[in-house]
Amino acid sequence: MNARRLKDILDRARTKRILVIGDLMLDQFVWGKVKRISPEAPVPVVEVTGESFYPGGAANVARNLREFVGHVAVVGMFGSDRGGRQLRDLMEEQKIETKNAVEDSGFPTIVKTRIIARNQQLVRVDREQLRSPTPAQVSAIVRKVHRQIPKTHAVIFEDYGKGFLAGELVRRICGDALAAGKIVTGDPNPHHPIEWKSVTAVKPNRNEAFLAAGLPSSDPAPEPMKDKPLLKAGEILLEKWQTKLVLVTLGEQGMMLFERGKKPHHIPTKARQVFDVSGAGDTAIALFTLALCCDATSVEAAEIANHASAVVVGKVGTATVTPEELRASFQNDRLA
After folding, report:
1. Phi/psi at 15 (5° precision)
2. Any idea what the CATH number is for the domain that residue 69 is in?
3. Which pLDDT value is given to residue 280?
4. From the candidates 23, 227, 276, 282, which is the catalytic residue?
5. Backbone angles phi, psi at 148, to 5 degrees
6. Consecutive sets of 10 residues in the chain, 336 residues long: mean pLDDT of each?
7. Disulfide: which of 5, 189, 230, 269 matches 254 by Cβ 3.0-4.6 Å?
8. What pLDDT, on a 0 to 100 scale, did the predictor assign at position 47?
9. Which of 248, 289, 255 shows the shortest CA–CA distance to 269?
10. Which residues contact 248 (CB under 8 A, 6 or more apart)?
11. Which domain does 104 fall in, by range?
12. Among this protein's residues, is 282 annotated catalytic?
């Protein structure tokens, strides 16, 4: 993709309005130094030097989009606890609309705490309670989203398997959005099967794709286009989900795009160095969906998602990519 084509796509992005629905989380990073091993157990002692908080889960998808679009909103659930207040404040600071998110006093906000030293994650601590919205909450959410759909260009479902994406909620919102001709994409969780039937695109990683396709896991082949189990999984998922596109992320091998009626297309990774893969999948679904909204072809959208993911894995923490960084990644690729 040349620079002019990329500019055209990103210029269109400024006018887009995208809705992200899924599991909202607060990402906490505790930064420190390791100078010794604990005398109490064979574990490192981390001397804390600081901490950072970021919107995580579905909120991180919205955070990635906010760098490019004029408006992004989230629908999910958080508590009225300290973590919930922090999460809402962070999203509002970043101009992510939260008015249709559910605040539930009986729900403890999901918090993921990562301990980082020397740019390496030592341990992660999860505080979470898996719970689906009540039937009354589902009905209220569907009504609110229904009112938003006419002025929304795309809906992204981000499923971390924490319970918010109840089957009935997804089915009803998908029906409304697809009937209105909107782009609908899903980032699935293998332990929380959802009927993604007829959505525009679904973006599993390799493991999720094999689980969803009902195939045994296998080691990646050196050349993805000759990886017969992977090609079979993509074929099965196109048929199972009756979706137009399936984009399988392959880590260090890049991505494989499956499109109904066309041959699979492999996009090699653009990552030059990898510090942290936290949130790379969030970036991929965000930029893939956004590019589709901006009249990019499916291959162009996959290339943009691939470059964006390459940028964020080169950063430590739950990171995002900026338009300038995305343009630079394409430019560096052309010069390489």
Report:
1. -95, 0
2. 3.40.1190.20
3. 84
4. 282
5. -85, -25
6. 92 96 96 94 94 95 94 96 96 95 94 91 93 94 96 97 93 95 94 87 95 93 96 96 95 94 91 62 95 96 94 78 92 73
7. 269
8. 95
9. 255
10. 203, 204, 205, 206, 209, 230, 233, 234, 255, 256, 257, 258
11. 3-335
12. yes
Rounded to 5 degrees, φ, ψ at 158 are: -110, 110
In contact, 90 and 131? CB cutoff 8 Å: no
Specify the pairing of strand 102-103 against strand 24-37: unpaired
Side chain identity at 212, as an amino acid letter? A
What distance in Å separates the CA atoms of residue 108 and residue 233, rounded to the nearest whole number? Answer: 37
pLDDT, residue 194, reads 86
| Nearest one of 299, 221, 309, 220 to 267, comparing CA atoms | 299
Residue 101 identity (one-letter amino acid) = A
Instruction: Count how many domains the chain has.
Output: 1
Which strands, in side-by-side order, build the sheet including 71-75?
71-75, 17-22, 154-158, 183-187, 201-202, 245-249, 255-259, 265-267
Residue 217 burial (CB count, 10 A): 9
Q: What are phi and psi of 179, to 5 degrees?
A: -65, -30
The per-residue pLDDT for 335 is: 58
Q: Which of 137, 210, 126 is nearest to 161 (CA)?
A: 126
Could you tell me whether strands 201-202 and 245-249 are parallel, antiparallel, or unpaired per DSSP bridges? parallel
* Predicted TM-score (pTM) of this structure: 0.93
